[in-house]
Amino acid sequence: MSLLPPFEDVHSSRLNSREGLEEWMVRGTLIQVEREAEALADNERGLNRGAGMTWDLLDDTSNLDQRHTMQTVAPVIWAIMSTIAFLHRPSSGSNLVTLNSPEQTAEGKKGTGVRDPTFGMMFALSILVSFRNPLVNFVQCVVAVFLFACSAHKTVYRAFNRIGMSVSHSTLHGHLKDLGASSRAALKTLGQRAYESSKQLTKEPQQYFMLIFDNVNKYHAVSRRQTVAVKNEMKNGTAATAVVLEDVPLDAFDPKPYMDNIKQNNHAGLTIKALFDDIDNKHLSRVGTGMIMRILCAYIPALSGELHSQVEARFQSTEHYAKHPLRLRQSIALSFGTSSIEENTPRGASNVMHDLVGTQMEMQPKWFDNLLVLAGGDQLSVKQLETAKKCKATEKSVYESRKWVLPIIQLWHMKLAYLRSLFRVHWFNTVQSRLFGLHHGADALGRHINPAVNDFYACHNAAKTIFETMVLTATLYVILSMFYFYWVLIYSSSVVIHEDTKRLLPTDNIHHMITELSGFFTKGAPFHKCSLERLETLAEHVYERFMTTAVYQKTLCLPNTLDANTLRSNVLKALQDNFDARQHNPGAIPPKLSSTSLHSNSDQMLGNLVLFMRDTFMYLEFASAIPQGDIGQVMEVIKVLRFSFYGSHAQNYGKELLEMACRFMFEYPAKLQTAILNNWLIYPSGLNGHWQENDFFQEHSNKAVKTVFNTKNSDWDSPFLRDTVSVNICGLSQLKDNLLHVLGLANVTISAIILG
């Protein structure tokens, strides 16, 4: 119906020829607008509808942006709205000039933080068409799901629904159930594909999956007045994700070669010598050299950006520092519904496996006669799963015996455990002058850190900063030992040298360490225009003098003829002397064991510094190789951690790494090892340098579930939480990031890095 008055109601005297012509043109335009509006609401060639919405539809960002469809189907309406939205100013001596045209906006302003009027036109037109036909509500459904992913209040849905911007909250629940059914169907299809791959029943490429599971909990405070029947409680459960495996060798998950290796019982070959020989010390030396070069390039301004690029290129090259870089690809992760099963017991871990593959993926027990499935978690989860396999080993059914499960310890909790070990060994409770260690370094930096609290990022940043400071100091020391007289010449006016010993004497002149170090790389200095080869040689000297076990042993100055019994007797003698001192004077504080307890020439303080730099280097290599996707570097550090965990009172991880070493050396076939290494990390965002640990991914999925639906009085296996929220959590996070990306609000958001 036209909003203009009919011609009969307009007196002819009120219209001149021009006005009449304009009236006719407007009425003709409205007729065309009516046609285009009807076309936009058409089921076949119009705008998308919300009914039957699936994650495959929402994951495609092109479906979220409907501007092209609107421009194609309704060009006149789009032109009218563009005229309103964009500023048009006539330029003197020329035709009409359009500022901020749709083409300029779509291409030039994307991602610049400037609002795009074409998106306003898209949403406005979607709202108007939905009033015309309520079934044409795809944009409104997307907005509602987006609001749900952002934990919006119900009032927001009511207000947005009233203005046509969103569907109602009840309609949203219906769409979420449909999306949940879509997610469960995808899980079922994945299980079917894995079985068909194991039996070679499909011509398509083989497809397998890994199960990642972790505990979830929330505190249920029912009332201030607790009774026997009604009381506060901690509700525990399990959340899990299925990660589609990539780059899997053919028949890698065939159980026959794996079972044959177990029957050979070659575990006796796992000796200390075999574990030491498994460590690639040459590779660790090369990577340590590269890490020192990275630090020097980051803190010395004189080193060119080209040199920094060359160093980074070596970390990407398998001929230099890279060991086993993973192929760049975007990982596919499917969320499971949560359950109230506590996976911290052997029975609970076994029941979790049944719930995931038997109940949710609907895989039949007989399928596992020819199939192995990776199951990843933290150390406790893996231990309980291994215990469950031992307890159920006598079961006749392969499925019930859980022989098809391959527990794989995941890397984020391992990294956290090693960081705790680092602080456990190198954090001294007392802070004194001339005392090296994490506590002394954190105090000097003004960092307030409590190692007893699991503050990962604070501890990580402190260890990294202290290590970098020590590397720069060690580099300055090495350069001074090479060019001592050059340094004296430069700073001759501010140094005092002892006449007899030729050593520097303390003065009131203070020189910043980085300034002094940078001075050796400026014009006229020994390292001016330093080449990559010369910088690498310098870094090798630093590594060999401060970051190896051999250097630590040299700091003790122990003669070759000194055996372990002599060392033991020296330590026992020092302990006895302390005991005797307290017997004569009980109130006196006995002196601590000094480095002379081992040998008269030992320098235990320098030895502790070397050990700290060595251990921190291992940790930082572990931490930096993960986002770069070099699982080979990670594996080389794990070979060292087999010993480090035992030496830092982390025997639980030490035992698990010994079990893993036994499996990799004697049980896992080569194809299975390759499949595990190629999928030990997840790449959800598809952005270079954003690889993640699988359990880290799961932890943030757990956090997202609690953020989206944090009702305290519901159990983890409640229908809405299990079948609607948790099973859709990966899709919800993906939709949130996709919509923000389409709107140009951010190139990549935090949740894109976390949940893909």
TrEMBL record:
<keyword id="KW-0812">Transmembrane</keyword>
<keyword id="KW-1133">Transmembrane helix</keyword>
<feature type="transmembrane region" description="Helical">
    <location>
        <begin position="474"/>
        <end position="497"/>
    </location>
</feature>
<dbReference type="InterPro" id="IPR046496">
    <property type="entry name" value="DUF6589"/>
</dbReference>
<protein>
    <submittedName>
        <fullName>Putative transmembrane protein</fullName>
    </submittedName>
</protein>
<keyword id="KW-0472">Membrane</keyword>
<dbReference type="Pfam" id="PF20231">
    <property type="entry name" value="DUF6589"/>
</dbReference>
<feature type="domain" description="DUF6589">
    <location>
        <begin position="267"/>
        <end position="747"/>
    </location>
</feature>
